[in-house]
From TrEMBL:
<dbReference type="Pfam" id="PF00143">
    <property type="entry name" value="Interferon"/>
</dbReference>
<keyword id="KW-0732">Signal</keyword>
<dbReference type="GO" id="GO:0005615">
    <property type="term" value="C:extracellular space"/>
</dbReference>
<keyword id="KW-0051">Antiviral defense</keyword>
<keyword id="KW-0964">Secreted</keyword>
<keyword id="KW-0202">Cytokine</keyword>
<dbReference type="InterPro" id="IPR009079">
    <property type="entry name" value="4_helix_cytokine-like_core"/>
</dbReference>
<dbReference type="GO" id="GO:0005125">
    <property type="term" value="F:cytokine activity"/>
</dbReference>
<dbReference type="InterPro" id="IPR000471">
    <property type="entry name" value="Interferon_alpha/beta/delta"/>
</dbReference>
<keyword id="KW-1015">Disulfide bond</keyword>
<dbReference type="GO" id="GO:0006955">
    <property type="term" value="P:immune response"/>
</dbReference>
<dbReference type="GO" id="GO:0051607">
    <property type="term" value="P:defense response to virus"/>
</dbReference>
<comment type="function">
    <text>Has antiviral activities.</text>
</comment>
<dbReference type="GO" id="GO:0005126">
    <property type="term" value="F:cytokine receptor binding"/>
</dbReference>
<comment type="similarity">
    <text>Belongs to the alpha/beta interferon family.</text>
</comment>
<protein>
    <submittedName>
        <fullName>IFN protein</fullName>
    </submittedName>
</protein>
Length: 130
């Protein structure tokens, strides 16, 4: 999947410096999660990535075959994780719900893209974040 993200990049990108680039929440990187919680967090991230990278506004900026291959790979990972999680699982409770941080991060990604008119530069920042 990481190779596919690299392959998606245009061959000639110009360096760009955009303001207010969202960064993945550090709090999610250092949590000791139960395996079901980790799987639920990974599933949510993959679902958001699939949705974000699958939008029509990406096709003009990235190589189509690599993008399609990545979307297929993400769909495979999503399906696999969905099979691992029990149907009745309530993975997170309380105010420090990592799923809320993930949702906020991807909302910020969409706001960032919108603020920069879904430019090639903004999409490349998203690709690097992914």
């Amino acid at each position: 999947a990481l190779r596919l993200l690299q392959d998606m990049a245009p061959s000639h990108t110009q360096p760009c410096h955009l303001q207010d680039t969202p960064f993945f929440p550090d709090t999610l990187l250092h949590k000791n999660l139960h395996p079901h919680q980790a799987a639920a967090a990974a599933l949510r991230i993959l679902q958001h990535l699939f949705h974000t990278l699958g939008t029509n506004s990406t096709h003009q900026h990235w190589h189509a075959q690599a993008r399609n291959d990545l979307l297929n790979k993400l769909q495979h990972y999503i399906h696999h994780l969905e099979q691992c999680l029990p149907d009745n699982a309530t993975p997170f409770k309380g105010p420090r719900n990592p799923l809320l941080a993930i949702n906020k991060y991807f909302r910020d990604i969409h706001l960032f893209l919108h603020a920069h008119n879904h430019s090639a530069c903004a999409w490349d920042h998203v690709r690097l974040q992914a």
